[in-house]
Amino acid sequence: MTQDDPIGRLLDFLHRSPTPWHATANMATRLEASGFQRLDEREAWQLAPGDRVYVTRNDSSIIALQLPNDPLVALRMIGAHTDSPGLRLKPHAAQTAAGWLQLGVEVYGGALLAPWFDRDLGLAGRVHVRRADGRIEGKLLNVDRPVATIPSLAIHLDREANNGRALNAQTQMAPVFLQGGEHQDLDRLLKGWLAEQHEIEDIEILDFELGLYDTQPPASVGVAGELISSARLDNLLSCFMGLEALLQSDGSQGAVLVANDHEEVGSASASGAQGPFLGDVLRRVVEQRVGSDQEAFVRLIQASRMISCDNAHALHPNFLDKHDASHGPAINGGPVIKVNANQRYATNSATAAMFRDLCREAGEPVQTFVTRADMGCGSTIGPITATELGVPTLDVGVAQWAMHSIRETAGARDVASLTTVLTAFLNRRGPL
């Protein structure tokens, strides 16, 4: 991988980001390498023209901010989310059956469950420990080798398995973890891994947030490498493209990249899009760089624009009937504007027109997705952010297959295409 290999950077980012905490840490590392300074929400801020800063909350959401040297009159905002559907460990995860230590799990978000069977699963997340001297600290844990699997039931024992059998997450999806482990202590195993990775020997594990993930690495797929196949493309792909655009921008304009956690479960948290994180940060910025009155904040927000990035459903060659005939975006067909009359997406004609003009300027194609009128529609952080802040917003993304599966597929050419348009957005001068 080289600095001029964006697909290599993407695959590396996906591979090293099995959880929202890891994704946030990896984004922070790249920001710092490019000169961004970390801010602490608990401390006073002193912001100056030209500053490039970032702040995290819950270690799983991140906001990066680029201030112009000129007066701050508008912000060009890109939004995404760091979380993906999956299987999270319950607090008392250890359970036994038929001589096996298993892991009790709950489903996080709207996961497509069937693809989780017969995968080589690793374990990752955040662990809080107390050291021998009494200090309490959080540590990232990533057991990046196969330590568990959820075995399928043989077709001979369930002849109806291919006829739409329902899956019970409580009784049928506990991964097998250790044979003969009836008397094993899960905490002891976690301590062993922490000692191996962080050289922490004498600790007490107080709590954890851990999930399982597929250890198969991301890959370029297709005869011509036209596809990207990986876990968590929804929505780490948008996090990556937003970060690339920010780092490639010329720095002349006020710019914000926000990547929230908890989108897949509704965004209602202190670090989610429905929470106060973005508003808190922007109000502190406005107070220092524009003015402390509410009018100054409203004026800045109304002069700003938000592009919410989250992947779109690509036209599937085996399920053409699942799309509206006029709104089936193609993989490698360019960025997709997402529209919904019931405000499941935040796009309106004004914000869509701005994006279409950006695509024209950048020489990139643009597509539109609208769900079938007889089908439900997912949502994004776009409508939530627009509701919380009042900022004019639109929803865009790249087309992908297998959304919410343990492994998803998107187009390699679309990565560069949307990154180019987002960079043009961050560099655009004048009114938005």
UniProtKB/TrEMBL annotation:
Coiled coil: none annotated. It is an enzyme of class 3 (hydrolase). It holds the Pfam family Peptidase_M18. Its cofactor is Zn(2+). It comes from the Bacteria. Gene3D superfamilies: Aminopeptidase i, Domain 2 (2.30.250.10), Zn peptidases (3.40.630.10). One of its GO terms (molecular function) is zinc ion binding. Its EC number is 3.4.11.-. InterPro entries: Peptidase_M18, Peptidase_M18_dom2. Belongs to the peptidase M18 family. This is M18 family aminopeptidase.
